[in-house]
Write a structure and sequence with these properties.
By secondary structure, the protein is an alpha+beta fold. The protein contains five helices and six strands; from the N terminus they run H-H-H-H-H-E-E-E-E-E-E. The strands form two sheets. Strands 1-4-5 form a three-stranded antiparallel beta sheet. It has a three-stranded mixed beta sheet with strand order 2-6-3, with no helix packed on it. Helix 3 packs antiparallel against helix 5. The model has no long low-confidence stretch (mean pLDDT about 90).
């Protein structure tokens, strides 16, 4: 049969269309409708999986960014912790030098002081700060470690009565607590 042009389409009257609409769908039409429904379900499933994959990728990006920042801020914690005894020894050396030693070994003491200043500058550069409580401050278990308790007249319970060793923070984390003695004097 020769192809009909669009202009030469046969006329279908309204009653023929109504008869076609009233007829039961054929097996091919039912199969096509099922296939369309399956394709829609598959499309919806793929869209859901795609959205979940996008959310997972965004979460992973945020987690990696947070991990990178933490590594940047706290990656040197182990090295910093290993450097704290160097600070302690320099501080002890400076405390042990009385006036006679300071006058006799002026260059040595100046070298120790310069080394201490340089160490503190490096600490500051890397976000390491000294936690140096004072006698009379309130004991804070978040920053202090109680080495002993003793009843001391004129103090309140929980006050620091002695500082044995300073502590250190790296950014907002405790690197080493300050070691302190705490008053156990009961309230009068």
């Amino acid at each position: 049969m020769a192809e009909q042009k669009r202009d030469e389409m046969p006329d279908i009257d309204l009653s023929t269309l109504e008869e076609l609409a009233a007829e039961e769908p054929t097996e091919a039409e039912l199969a096509a409708a099922d296939e369309v429904e399956q394709l829609r379900a598959e499309r919806d499933d793929m869209r859901d999986r795609f959205m979940r994959a996008l959310a997972d990728a965004e979460n992973m990006r945020k987690r990696a960014d947070r991990d990178r920042r933490e590594a940047e801020n706290y990656g040197g914690s182990k090295l910093a912790r290993d450097m704290l005894p160097v600070y302690d020894n320099l501080a002890r050396a400076l405390e042990a030098a009385d006036e006679e030693v300071r006058e006799g070994k002026k260059a040595l003491i100046e070298g120790i002081e310069l080394t201490m200043r340089e160490l503190l500058n490096v600490f500051k550069k890397h976000g390491i700060e000294i936690v140096e409580p004072q006698v009379g401050d309130k004991f804070d278990p978040q920053h202090h470690q109680a080495m002993f308790e003793a009843p001391v007249p004129g103090t309140k319970q929980g006050e620091i009565i002695q500082v044995s060793q300073v502590g250190f923070m790296i950014h907002d984390r405790l690197l080493r607590p300050a070691q302190v003695g705490v008053s156990s004097t009961p309230a009068s």
